[in-house]
Amino acid sequence: MIKKVKHALWLHLYDPVFTILFGLFIFVSVGGRIFADVAFKFIPRKFYIMAGDDICTLLIVLGLWFPFVLGVHIKRQFANHRASLLPGYRSSHMFASFLFFVAFLSFGSLVTVGFQAQYDFFPGTIFWGVYVSFWLMTILVVCLGYLSITSLLYVAYIVGILVLANNQGLVSFLSSSLTINVFIAMLTGLLVLLLGWRLLKLKEDHAEYPYLISWPQKDLIQNQLRAREVPSLLISRLKEFFHIKKGTAAIPPYSGRNNLWTRARHWDHMELAELKALGIVVLLILPLYILYLKNFGATNNFFNKTYTNFLLFSVAPVLIVITANYNKMSYWGFDLLKPILRHNFIGEHGVSLMINLVLDWAVLGFLFAVLPKLVLDVTVLRTLHFWTYLLLTLSFAFCFLAWISVMGRIVNPKAIIGHGLFFSFMTTSQFMHASTMPTVPIMLFNSFVYFACGVVLTRVAYRRWCDAEF
Amino acid sequence: MQSKAKFYFTIATTSGVPIYRQIIDQVKTLIATGKIEPENFLPSVRQVAAELEINPMTVSKAYSILEREGILESVRGKGMRINQSTEAKEDLQEREKAILPLLREVVVRTSQLSLNPKRVIEMIESLWKEKNDE
Amino acid sequence: MNNLALNIKNISKSFGTKTILDQLSLSVPKGSVFGLLGKNGAGKTTLIKCALGLMKPQSGEITVLSDNPWIFREATKEKLGYVPQTERLYPWLTVRQLIHYTASFYSHWNEDLVNGLITDWELNPEDRVGLLSEGQAQKLSIILALGHEPELLVFDEPVASLDPAARRQFLKTILQIVSDKKVTVFFSTHITSDLERVADRVAVLKNGKIDFCGELDDLKDAVKRLRIPKIDQLPDRMTINGLIYCEEEPDGLIIAVRDFREEMKRHIENTWNVTVEVEDLNLEEIFLELNR
Fold this sequence. Notes:
Largest sheet of chain B: 2 strands, antiparallel
Shape of chain A: globular
Oligomer: heterotrimer
Number of helices of chain A: 21
Number of helices of chain B: 6
Structural class of chain A: mainly alpha
Radius of gyration of chain B: 17 Å
Distance between the termini of chain B: 24 Å
Mean pLDDT of chain A: 71
Largest sheet of chain A: none
Low-confidence stretches of chain A: 114-126, 143-153, 215-219
Strand order of the largest sheet of chain B: 1-2
Strand content of chain A: under 5%
Order of helices and strands of chain B: HHHHEEHH
Structural class of chain B: mainly alpha
Distance between the termini of chain A: 43 Å
């Protein structure tokens, strides 16, 4: 048994992305704790706070990615025939994953526990709230296999985390009462047990199996189609409910004589399911959301303090676009055989990605920057600062997408995650300090730089993809 | 010394004729044409199966049927040996029936090739003379 | 029951409104090489998955190696090897790592056998699994199923991606395994020529049921094509047992039957005063006839 668990552990660790994330996480938690305890005495307070903020953000980002990758691993291990046919498989893999999970929680707690008492400028309570939500979300991630219903729940995941993390009221509420903490801990424990029990019995017949086939896999299509039945069913029910006219089933024909815009939009007809689902859900939730903002928005840092959620407005749209379009890329080899010139094909897909990026960015920006300010503090909308900031996020997103397109010849989601991480670190370091918001000229300059880099990278990507093999 | 199975048997796996039947027929032909003499041993089941890349059970089935018909004899430790008295076992009528299809074919071919039947009979007789002289 | 490696009794399996398996029964004796034939979508994969406990039939009973597949005991799993149609391997591992990982689950693992196969089948142990071609991945899946020398090997289209040389190697390996020990091999395939070479028993899956189950030789003896040349006047009607179809050509009749016997030929010749030519069919043609 021990041998099997050992091999199951190594199965996780042989994956470089997993090991790097895990190693980084441990390093930052341990390092952060040592820093907090020791450096307190030596460093001036101002730098201490700044460094503390950095460590917190690092841990949050890592805490986002690591459960994600762990979730992918868990799904890979259980959603296959080996789980049923190899002796002692399920228990050993369950145990190995459980060990990683526990390690994640323990090292994460290393920084949070004990801080609240000593250092009141360290957002210990926030951490506690954040990590609890991480645990719950990780379980949901694995349970629902949201990688099949990509952007919809992915956005909800990130947004949920950020909202919870910044809602002082909610977090204080959560950390204040012992009963609440015990309840949350028990709920988490229960969910973990439920997940574990379910995974131990998982067979192909079970409803969640197609959702758990994680990407990218070669035979993904059949299971993805099964998995997509539910959201499509939901969408059609919603359409019926709202008497939305049934869209014409026929896709407008492609014509090489159309302009670039029309041609680019043509490719989108294949893969709009997720965005449509997202759109409908957003519309439904909008009234509730506005109500929430009116009544509780003021106490929520996320909406109240500033609109500086850089990750949300710059990186999230890129990730949505990429994950939504990832499946399409496996068809590019076929599509190239259609009567289209190669450079036109690449160009159109590039434009289509950009259009989707702007759309996603606009939706996120509207929902989480414009709308809250509209409800809470309209004057902000009249400042140049606000719009310049949003412009900055857009140009960064553009640059990031171009960067990924260049890197994207390694069509490997783990590499994308790695790059995303790298980019997030690089850039959030500029914007973490709420007290030191950059001025308008600086932001304009940065926007310009990002935009210029984006243009250059786009050209590079264009040329690379034109030469690419499929 | 055991000869190679491939030397003795040519098996068409995708023929309509089952493999075991092909082996049986070919063993009988080998004996009749003198390629294997009585008292000699056929290659083992395992050897035949391995060289021809077929299921050993098929070979074993063919050998069992031949043993039952008295053509082969199983010798412990050494394998399957050709029996001495193969010919006398079968009924005369059965044996004549066995050759009938071949003869029919000769008749059909004679007419297809527009040959003189009398000439063909002469050819058969001279072939017989050759065999008896061996 | 103990001489059956696999015993399926009256199982039915549907997905929603579609019935795939309909009161199906099948038995596989120990030590046989058993081939499962069926058209695409006939339900071969579903049948195999039910037999291995990956799916559960709505009704019926399955016994594999004297155990219930839905709740296999560990001891039974040690004796089982399965190669699915599409394998999901861990792309970040190397071939060597994946082999060691799989080996850790079994108490018995034949290292020499596996190393021999890797060399013979030209796989590089240091290659990343994610970068293997389909054929190489399929070969690797097969090796992973053979390493612990199971008593029951189940293959679902194991050679679909292999070239003829690789397929031959695979068949050769199977034959070696079968001749050395009491191993049962069960595989579903489209490639009838492979079955003809190595299988001793076959089953044909059609419309959710087993159309034929028995020795391959018996199947070849039973399904024949008869030609009745139109020399004289043909009768208006003929009754033939086990008729699959009858086609009238300008030069005569072509009849396919499924329960052929020598007496049938004589009976037809005597009853209707015609001559009958009997054509032997190979497995591919038998399959086509049975699936008309």
